[in-house]
Amino acid sequence: MPKFSLGATSKKELEGVHADLVKVILRAIELTCQDFSVHDGIRTLEAQKKLVAAGASKTLESRHLTGHAVDLVPVINGKLRWEWDPIYVLADAVRSAARELKIPLRWGGAWDVDFTNSTDSTEHLVATYVEACRQQGKRAFIDGPHFELPKAKYP
Ligand SMILES: [Zn+2]
After folding, report:
1. If you average pLDDT over residues 39-57, what whole number do you get?
2. Residues with CB under 5 A from ligand 1 (ion)
3. CA of 21 to the centre of ligand 1 (A)
4. Distance (Å, whole) CA 151 – CA 153
5. Reported pTM
6. What is the CATH number assigned to the segment(s) 8-148?
7. What is the domain partition of the chain in residue ranges?
8. Mean pLDDT of the chain
């Protein structure tokens, strides 16, 4: 028996989100050892502008605007927790679900890798990505709760 299930708020957030991404999330909640909540599915341009202004997002062409992205946030003792340790665990469950369903995913913890087919631990993927950015003299913008369908395959 799965340990967790999506709450009403999470289900509401999934309205308008691409069916393939929804499939991955529904499977991930069955596989995960870390409970999570869907925090942001479809986002309005207005909301996205505010996030960019606050420095919480980098782009006005966010995949959230088109239903190709979601943010999954760990839930611990009934509270949302933006913390890396539980994010690593839930990201691993999302990856297992995506692999099982053969759905390509891009993860905000390591933007440049084919997340679905990656084999490193999720923690190590982030470390590698941050280090690669550092070597190029760039600050890594990492967003652990963020998962999206890649634009190349889902325009
Ligand atoms: Zn996001």
Report:
1. 88
2. 71, 146
3. 13
4. 5
5. 0.93
6. 3.30.1380.10
7. 8-148
8. 94
